[in-house]
Design brief:
The complex is a heterodimer of chains A (467) and B (393). Chain A has helices at residues 3-13, 21-26, 55-68, 120-129, 146-152, 159-162, 165-168, 187-190, 226-236, 249-259, 278-294, 302-310, 338-345, 347-350, 378-394, 413-417, 419-432, 456-466; strands at 17-18, 48-50, 72-75, 92-95, 104-106, 111-114, 132-134, 169-175, 181-184, 202-212, 216-223, 243-247, 267-274, 298-299, 324-333, 353-358, 363-372, 401-402. Chain A is α+β, with helices and mostly antiparallel strands and 467 residues long. Chain A has a domain at 216-402: FAD-linked oxidase, cap domain/gating helix (Vanillyl-alcohol Oxidase, Chain A, domain 3). In chain B, strand 7, helix 19 and strand 8 (379-382) form a beta-alpha-beta unit. The chains are: A alpha+beta (467), B alpha/beta (393).
Chain lengths: 467, 393
């Protein structure tokens, strides 16, 4: 960053800006640590970090950034491994956790107005005190923020019944890169900010739909093969579940090893259902058992079900014994993905672990973990990352797509959200951020740092395919 | 300053286990300060940078500045370790980094002053030793016969209840409870030294160890088998720290006053005589609940009080909010203590309790200040004081 530019920011921000070595290193990563070799592709170490306290702060920051052409990278919980909240090529990271506001629960409308920086577990706790609940939430429930999940394009637990987070947004206030503070109410415009990784501005306030806090009861089953699992996922929609969450055989083995369980090495699914009274549970149980039998599955021993469900936010713990790991996520269609799933989970000598969540009538999300058993070189880790990417991109053939764009999948927005949406996105971006200062390098593929004739998307794809 | 092998963890090995899930963002001071340099996972990153051989020496100065600043912004409430899905011994790591800071001469003056006070006078206030039992005079109690007598139970008063005017009622209440139940007990009097908790928290290992040895010698001299205390800090020191540093020599049973009262009620040596009509809530002190796993006894003895209306705070048991006063944060950043405390005060307000009961002098003081600042009409008392009322003393 040029000295003159830095002075402008420091003069305005004072202690709200950090530039020390430790802070720059901490903010240069998200859940996954990029191998050093990726420095050839990205320079993820920021020039500074800013902690704005309100929309007006952000407005001023954007104005200064536009004037000085400084990249602005919004960050919230930093809980994904897609790189959406780390710089593509330096710039100033805006840590949105400073954006606080009083929570406003409106019981009649069943909505809550909140700051984007609130963590899901904290929001849910506050809602439960008033008898309400979130409609859906991510598996990183204890660390992900509401604003971050929207920007990441969040689907998760509860999405099969209540939709993705975008379906629950009633209103969002955003500071646009041109400095305007704007509230959006229409689905068409709200959708622009879903999965856009903060490239269209920084969300400063959110009004979400909420629901009554109905107790959840869990039921479990197993399927021997991906074909039966997919059949089960289709059939299970008939029982109106709140969540359908499943583990692949490798992840099941990890549960067995860690907890001394004796689960069959097959696909284990835990179904969560909103149930208010005992008779309803009894009736549902009969219905559920029949549905599973119809799909060719087995009913899971009751003693495991609650324990596994209670562990749903903590499955990362199963990676703690490994020196390193890689993580990614893909969205797959139920109809056509059985073969792909079998192939995917057979990769890396069967060590790729997967957890799926049904997110709509047609698709499920699949979170992938690759534990790295021995310390490996930077080069090898990069190769492994590219190999996983390659297989995620291959899902296109069967109608699948990456969960989010972030840094690794910049350029795949239209594959995820459709061509119409991409057109809408591009027009809007051009209008409000002509200098492309808001999180450059995300959503639309950037040019290579050292060889601007090529785009990053092309280079990553070529490198992946060569493997 | 020396360190002990049993005190240490392999810091780089422990840091390596972090899966970066970010759940430790529950940290009460990080929630106020917001910068990820104060996030426990960010602190682990800094520790890695600081201790790794590959880090350039010229960078270590910069790293240590941020690292030591972050480590002393910690209240040692253990919320991070409690939620850590990788089971990383975070508290031991934080203590170890504080020791490193001491070694490097990087404590702030207030911390150093406390350390010297405790080291020289064996109490956290730097007051004369012979004033240790002055709380008895103020409560019109005569403790001469109880002091340094042989008994199987010792009441360890603690520095705050011994010297602080704010806590004066705590020691008197404990003594009244013990007398009412006709329990034979002793106090160490002038020979009671600070349990060492503040110096251990600060990272001063050797001084803390000498205190532990002294207190153990005193207990052994008097034939003590059980110790009771109303201070969560002393309780933690006896339960967690002393066994770690004294090993098998430390074979005494340690009780919080709530545990002893529960036992006395069960044995019918103690009976409640008075009704308490005010709505009561209990704030679980971090050092009792998360450090030592003491959860039910305080609730049980409160709920047995005739006519009691008891309700837990929204965040309770292992998920209890920190009051902000722990980990010597008061010496490092008093404003931050108030910020952290304000979240707890909001919960107290929400609970509509008329009495907030507690089992820790630090919490008591911090909550009293928070309640006063917010202008709430709430009485904040120690659990011993509540029991004293209920038994009609």
């Amino acid at each position: 960053m040029k000295k003159k530019t830095r002075t402008k920011f420091v003069r305005y921000l004072g202690k709200q800006m950090k530039e020390d070595f430790s802070a720059l290193q901490i903010y240069s990563r998200d859940m996954s640590k990029l191998p050093n070799l990726t420095k050839l592709l990205f320079n993820s170490t920021p020039d500074g970090i800013i902690l704005p306290r309100n929309a007006e702060d952000i407005q001023r920051i954007y104005n200064l950034a536009t004037e000085t052409r400084t990249p602005i990278i919004p960050r919230s919980g930093g809980t994904t491994g897609f790189g959406g909240s780390i710089p593509y090529n330096k710039g100033l990271v805006i840590d949105c956790k400073g954006l606080d506001r009083e929570l406003l629960i409106e019981p009649i409308d069943q909505t809550v107005t909140t700051s984007p920086s609130i963590i899901f577990s904290e929001l849910q706790k506050k809602l439960k005190l008033q008898g309400f609940s979130l409609c859906s939430y991510p598996s990183s429930y204890y660390s992900a923020t509401v604003g971050g999940w929207i920007s990441h394009g969040g689907h998760g637990i509860g999405s099969i019944k209540y939709g993705s987070v975008v379906d629950q947004i009633v209103e969002i206030q955003v500071v646009l890169p041109n400095g305007e503070i704007h509230s959006f109410y229409e689905k068409e415009n709200i959708s622009l900010f879903f999965g856009s990784n903060g490239t269209l501005g920084i969300i400063t306030e959110i009004k979400l739909k909420i629901k009554f806090d109905i107790p959840l009861k869990q039921f479990g089953c197993t399927f021997d093969s991906p074909v039966e699992l997919m059949k089960g996922l289709k059939e299970l929609q008939e029982v109106d579940p709140f969540s359908v969450w499943f583990l692949n055989p490798s992840q099941v083995s990890a549960f067995n090893d860690s907890f001394g369980y004796n689960l069959p090495r097959s696909y284990v699914a835990i179904i969560s259902k909103e149930i208010s009274y005992d008779e309803e549970e009894l009736a549902f149980s009969v219905n559920f058992n029949n549905t599973i039998r119809k799909a060719g599955g087995q009913i899971l021993d009751k003693r495991y079900i609650t324990d596994i469900w209670d562990f749903r936010f903590k499955t990362f713990a199963l990676l703690k014994e490994y020196p390193d790991f890689l993580i990614s996520e893909v969205i797959l269609p139920i109809e056509t993905s059985a073969k792909y799933l079998r192939k995917l989970t057979g990769l890396f000598e069967g060590s790729l672990r997967a957890e799926g969540e049904l997110i709509s009538n047609t698709h499920y999300s699949l979170l992938l973990y690759l534990p790295i058993k021995e310390p490996i070189s930077d080069f090898k880790k990069t190769l492994l990352m590219l190999k996983i990417n390659k297989h995620i991109l291959k899902s296109k053939k069967i109608g699948g797509f990456p969960y989010s764009t972030g840094l690794w999948f910049a350029g795949y927005y239209s594959q995820i959200y459709g061509k119409e949406m991409y057109k809408h996105y591009k027009n809007f971006k051009k209008k409000i951020d002509p200098k492309n200062i808001s999180n450059p390098g995300k959503v639309c593929s950037p040019k290579m740092r050292f060889f601007p004739l090529l785009k990053l998307k092309f280079v990553i794809r070529m490198a992946s395919e060569l493997l | 300053m020396s360190s002990s092998n049993e005190w240490q963890v392999d810091i780089l090995d422990a840091v390596q286990q972090c899966v970066y899930c970010g759940y430790c963002g529950i940290c009460p001071t990080f929630r106020e300060l917001k910068w990820e340099t104060y996030h426990p996972r960010g602190i682990l990153d800094q520790i890695k940078m600081y201790f790794e051989d590959t880090t350039k020496e010229e960078l270590k100065g910069d790293i240590s500045k941020s690292l030591f600043d972050s480590i002393f912004a910690c209240t040692m409430c253990k919320a991070c370790e409690n939620i850590c899905i990788a089971d990383i011994p975070l508290l031991k790591i934080w203590e170890q980094v504080r020791q490193e800071s001491f070694k490097r001469g990087r404590w702030n003056p207030a911390l150093l002053s406390l350390y010297n006070k405790v080291k020289n006078t064996q109490n956290i206030f730097g007051l004369p030793k012979d004033e240790r039992v002055s709380w008895a005079d103020l409560s019109n109690m005569v403790m001469t016969k109880r002091t340094q007598r042989k008994a199987s139970l010792a009441y360890f008063v603690g520095c705050q209840a011994s010297y602080s005017g704010k806590m004066e009622g705590v020691a008197a209440s404990v003594v009244k409870i013990l007398r009412k139940a006709r329990v034979d007990f002793t106090i160490l009097g002038d020979e009671e030294w600070c349990c060492g908790s503040p110096v251990f928290l600060a990272g001063g290992y050797s001084v803390g160890k000498s205190f532990a040895k002294h207190n153990l010698d005193q207990f052994k001299k008097l034939g003590v088998k059980r110790i009771v205390t109303a201070c969560a800090g002393c309780y933690r020191a006896f339960k967690i720290v002393y066994p770690r540093i004294l090993g098998d020599k430390w074979d005494l049973e340690v009780l919080h006053i709530s545990e002893l009262v529960a036992e006395l009620l069960e044995q019918k040596k103690l009976k409640y005589k008075k009704t308490i009509k005010e709505k009561i809530t209990f704030k679980d002190p971090c050092e009792l609940v998360r450090h030592c796993g003491l959860i039910e006894p305080p609730r049980e003895i409160i709920e047995m009080i005739p006519g009691v209306r008891y309700e837990d705070l929204p965040s309770n048991r292992e998920e209890a909010l920190c009051c902000g006063g722990g980990g010597l944060l008061k010496l490092n950043d008093a404003d931050l203590v108030r910020q952290v405390n304000s979240r707890l005060i909001e919960e107290i307000e929400y609970s509509e309790a008329e009495i907030v009961v507690n089992g820790c002098p630090t919490c008591l003081d911090t909550i009293q200040q928070g309640v006063k600042k917010k202008g709430l009409d709430v009485e904040v008392i120690d659990i011993a004081e509540l029991i004293k009322r209920a038994i009609g003393e």
